[in-house]
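Standup notes, protein team

Yesterday: finished cleaning the Pedobacter boryungensis set.
Today: LPS-assembly protein LptD structure.
Blockers: none.

Input for LPS-assembly protein LptD:
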Amino acid sequence: MKLLRDIIFIIAALLLTSVGNKALASSNFFFQQVSKQTDSTKKDTSKVKMRKSDLDEKVEYFAKDSTRVDRKNGIMYLYGRARVIYQDFELDADYIRFNSKDNTIFARGIKTDKGKYVGRPIFKMSSQGSSIADSLTYNTKTGKGTVSGVFTEQEGGFFSGGKTKMQPDNEFNVSGTTYSTCNLPEPHYGIHITKGIATETQIITGPVYLEFERVPLPIAIPFGFFPKPNKKSSGIILPTPGEDYTKGFSLTNGGYYLALNDYWDARLTGDIYTNGSYHLNLATNYIKRYKFGGNFNLAYASDRQGLEGTPEYDPQKNFHIGWTHSQNANARPGTTFSASVNAGTGNYFSVSAANGTYDINQIASNTMSSSIAYGKVFGDGLFNLTTSLSHSQETRAKTISLTLPQVSLNMSTISPFDSKNRVGEQKWYQKISVGYSMQASNTVSTREDLLFDKDGLKRFRNGMQHSIPISLPFNVLKYLNFNSSVNYSERWYLQTVQNRYFKRPNSSDSVAIDTVNGFKRAGEYSLSLGMSTKLYGGKKFKNLGSIKAIRHVMTPNVSFSYKPDFSTNNYGYYKNKVYYTNDLRPGKSVPLDGDNLVRDYQGLPQKYSIFEGAQYGGPSAGKQASIGFSVDNNVELKVSDSKDTTGTGEKKIPIIQGLNFSSSYNFVSPTKKLSPINFGGRSQFTDKLGFNFSGVFSPYAVQNVPITSGSGPNQTITYQYQEVDRYVWKDGKLPRLTSFNFSFDYSLNPEALKGRNKNMDALQNQTDQQQAGRTPEQIEQLQAISRDPNAFVDFNIPWNIAFSYSFNYNNALGLASTRTISNTLNFNGDFNLTPKWKIQFNSGYDFKAKTVSYTSFAIYRDLHCWDLSANWIPFGSYQSYSIDIKVKASILQDLKLSKRKGYYTKY
């Protein structure tokens, strides 16, 4: 009934704005000749010749072949691509006749010598699309008229055939009209309306039935009565019957629609299954044009799985909250507000089959996250304030992290000693720049079941951090670029910790962590000086075929940094680890007598930071004075361009992009002063192939080190391979490779990726008003496509196959026993079996596990105005299938047939 009501509404809207509404409402006309209409969607009213009469209204007209006036009978004839314009109504036909005595306008096409009917009347209003008819008659005095064989498009649907009679009181009689979303003259299917009456406030119809290939189905609605308000109205949403392989027969998406006002609506729907499962969903959309828009969803699900009497049959209750909000960029310049909330119980998507959508990307996902953000720029753009509330969940481990809130204040870098009216080059002190940033947050990470218990608020950690960078750039010898800087940061906390250590016989020591309330600040600073330059090298070739030259650009960087030891006693940020008496009574645990310090294996006292576990940590321990060095390399070839027809064109091919080596040396470190050597690079040889690689070299040797445990007669010595403080080159060896990562992507048809990215960009570039105006079903479909680019079925791309490969090697000690290797291959693609059949696939292989990864197949059949899709996951945790046949047009999205077997089937 909902579907039929929507169709009748569209018919009424079309009729009430068509030619009979007001286009020819007057019986007196003044004719004015105009040029031919070349496009029914655009007016061309350039005036060619004026003809005057004593008529009090104005009609503009044109005929390509001829115009004949029968003054005796008061009839005007227009032949050959004739056009008439009256107010905002336009009429085109190969034959138009106007009789001023009986006040009738008649328009029709003509038959060619071969018997083909051409030049049918085309009429339109300024606010409507064009409509085509076999013939049109209208009496301008009585307001009666007839339109025969109409064909028009309205909101994605097409009306064809039948006859429409227009009455003087804006009432319309319709008979034999077919509605379809198929745009063919002979549609594949349609909803046939035998007869009906439409007024401005209501619609009454006779029998209405479906027909396929002009064959009527034996199921019909005998009559219908529908109110037709001029604005949105509340009403009942009839459910859709269906079947689920596990949950049984169902009635889904039934409920009530609330049209609250022009800016806000709501929809309360539910699903019920014969096995006892049910879902409830509240969805609301809101929009304030040119201001903001969004939608809010609250869902609750109670699902049963398994046979009655089994533990799985007990209902699993879950909920989900979704909210999106976007603000027009021009609504409040300098101020932004956005929201993207995706939260709920961890089992909601897996148990409820993604609220009945069977979206495998939501079902297989094990994370949820949300963010609500507000930002403001003030102080003539000098300051930028952002605040946000965020959350993240790991659904399988059932852990949750909240940040309530996070605040960031950033000041643009300024030069306090420079003058706005300065003339000439800057003095050295005028180059000094100062910045400022502040971050504050309040966070908690815990399990879902512990978040709202009585101690939930005590688990929050909070703090504030200030940072003030000061820098001074300068050049030496023109090509050496130096930059010196001083960085000061300070952290504020309302809580610190105090640790008590206890000796445990025959086991490791234990520690008790006490929270100490009270404000505490922690400041630290560092100094740095850096230098960089560029070195160029190249060579031209004359006898290497298409290779013309090679170029190498090397960018070395050297930096020095210094930071004092903030763990010394005078700062008060660190305390000695002290053994306490093992007494659990409040206030009875005191430090042991004598030497109660906790010492390391060298006998040195150990310390701990009173800011352990704090939001932004605390000042670092140990003095730092290190030098860092890196070198970046880029190598490219210049070759002849085969596509250049002049024979002189050249192009560049990158051979190595960003090949970087980096390390550092800490002068004050007691051991292992040289850091591991990191390297990485990338290359993109063609549009189809590109790869990335990275790794780490260790400069230290590995030896079999003796380890002594126990004492006296129980003392034992074992040997274990460890990295020692000895450079490998002292033994005549090169640094040891401890890790290496390599990956590449390859597409056999890069046009497919370009087309998919273009479609994705088109979705993302929608305005907030357009997004808010979509139905919840359309929003969900767009979100599914955003999560899965393969959801695009593009029959214009005949085929595509893409591969991605990843290789990871790790071996910290260079031994066979410590070596781990993993490499995986993923591949996906699609191809047109015929111009109307497309097959998609997605799979991969894990070489370490020696097993096939997540695999899925999809088959699509383009049925012109319908489509058929089948999805199959043949094995694995999400083994399932689904078959859907549905109308393409979203206006008839309920006209579909589905069959599914859920992945969660237990019997």
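Follow-up from PR in the comments: The longest strand covers residues 480-502.
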